[in-house]
Amino acid sequence: MRPIKPVLLATALALPLAPFAAQAQTPDELLVIAQNIDDIVAIDPAQAYEFTSGELVTNTYDRLAQYDADDTTVLAPGLATDWTIDAEAKTITFTMRDGVTFHSGNPVRAEDVVFSFARVIELNLTPAFILAQLGWTPENVRDMVTADGNTVTVRYDGDFSPAFVMNVLAARPASIVDELTVMANEVDGDMGNAWLNANSAGTGPFELTTFRPAELVRMTANPDYFSGGPAIEGVIIRHVAESATQQLLLQSGDVDLARNLTPDQIASLDGDGIRVETFPQAAVHFLSFNQAVDSLTPPAFWEAARYLVDYEGMTNSIIAGQMEVHQAFWPEGFPGALTDTPYTYDPDRARAILEEAGVDLPITVTLDVINSAPFTDMAQSIQASFADAGVNFEILPGTGSQVITRYRDRSHEAMLLYWGPDFMDPHSNAKAFAYNSDNSQDAYAATTTWRNSWAVPEEMNAMTTAALTEPDPAAREDMYLELQRQVQDSSPIVIMFQASYQVAMAESVSGYVNGATSDFVFYRLVEKN
Question: N or C: the chain end with fewer CB closer than 10 Å?
Answer without folding.
Answer: C
